[in-house]
Amino acid sequence: MYIIIAILGFSLLVIVHELGHFIMAKVNGIKVEEFSVGMGPEIFSRKGKETRYSLRLFPIGGFVSLLGEEEVVDDERSFSSATPLRKISIILAGAIMNIIFAIIVFSMIISHRGFNELKISKLSENSPAINSGLQINDEIIEIDGDKVYTPTDVTMAIQLSNGNPINLLINRNGEKIEITLTPELIEKNGNKVYHIGFYYSAIKEPTIIQAIKQSIKETASLINQTFKSLKLIVSGNVNLKTDVGGPITIIRMSTQAAKNGLVSLGYLLGFISVNLAIFNLLPFPALDGGWAAVTIIELITRRKLPDKIVGAANYVGFIILMGVMIIVTLKDVLFPIKL
User: Fold this and answer.
1) Where are the transmembrane segments (predicted)?
2) Span 99-110, pLDDT tens digits
3) CATH architecture of 115-203
């Protein structure tokens, strides 16, 4: 039962993504030939005014089919005939919709559970925090020159320090102060982690405005962390065997989150939704970011790139993505991440 909930939850993210493309296509007057929920053989379909809405067998996402999306069509309502700016708005709408979904989900969770501010409420005795001169009510703004949005950003920066000194920029009664301290290694719940020794102020019953503002910060934090994670992967500073997971890991995590309740599942879906948005925006062939890059080049040069070149690049990109997906899936089977 929990596995089904997990799969449906992940499918919801793909449907939300495709819904973004669908809405912006309609806004731009582009003909949508089909909007499908699910993949594979068709179970049911209904023809609207011009769009066919279908339900397919496998609940693993969905798709939107636009007139002139795959080939040039001499029709003013085709995607191929749209101006570059209109194309870009349709292409980016999927990722933007995933970001909006995450903000909505986080707002609901924060309204229910509250949140921690970046303001210090308590200092541990003989800790790096108190020894460095940090005080209660200090608000952390930056770490090593990087803006922090949530306590998670602070935790991530502390762990990535590997025990080296870090520089904090704090707000103390309206005055910005720089403090340098060195995290210390401690044992917590059987694991060795770095800490600096302080506690955050908590907002237990936030207003709707506070919840929305904090959810935007949570989303910005996740976007920032996603880019940092991609940088670590590219630089080789991540153990691919133990730290990187694929679709099976996502389903396992979603299943575990479903067992822990709707709040845990909702937060994980918001997290994955942000990651899905960023991944799709990467300027790689066959991804939304790749299509956007091609369109931006055409907008700047005012010349259409040859369809054969674009088609070949997307084909190669798709093959590479499928290869990576297969490798990551095999890795999930052979070297599953411990949850």
Assistant:
1) 88-110, 262-282, 312-330
2) 999 999 999 999
3) Roll (2.30)
Active site residue 187: no
Name the amino acid, one letter, at 58.
Answer: F
65: tokens are 């089919």
Question: pTM of the full predicted structure?
Answer: 0.85
Domain layout of the chain by residue ranges: 2-112+247-334, 115-203
How far apart, in whole angstroms, are the C-alpha atoms of residue 81 and residue 75?
7
Distance CA 233, CA 238 (A): 5
Q: What is the pLDDT of residue 149?
A: 94
What is the C-alpha to C-alpha distance for residues 69 and 18, in angstroms, rounded to an integer? 14
User: With contact defined as beta carbons under 8 Å apart, do 179 and 133 qualify?
Assistant: yes
Mean pLDDT, rounded, for 66-70: 86
Active-site option among 18, 50, 69, 175: 18
Share of the chain above pLDDT 70, in %: 88
Distance, CA of 81 to CA of 59 (rounded, Å)? 32
Share of the chain above pLDDT 90, in %: 45
Alpha helices in 244-335 (DSSP H): 247-260, 262-281, 288-301, 307-334
Burial of 274 (0-12, 13-18, 19+ CB in 10 A): buried
- pLDDT value at residue 211: 95
Is residue 93 within 8 A of residue 24, CB to CB? The reply is yes
Closest CA to 141 of 95, 114, 177, 183: 177
Is residue 253 predicted with pLDDT exceeding 80?
no
**Rounded distance between C-alpha atoms, residue 95 and residue 21, angstroms:** 9
Tokens of 119: 């303001």
The letter for the amino acid at 243 is D
In this structure, are residues 247 and 332 in contact, taking their beta carbons and an 8 Å threshold? Answer: yes
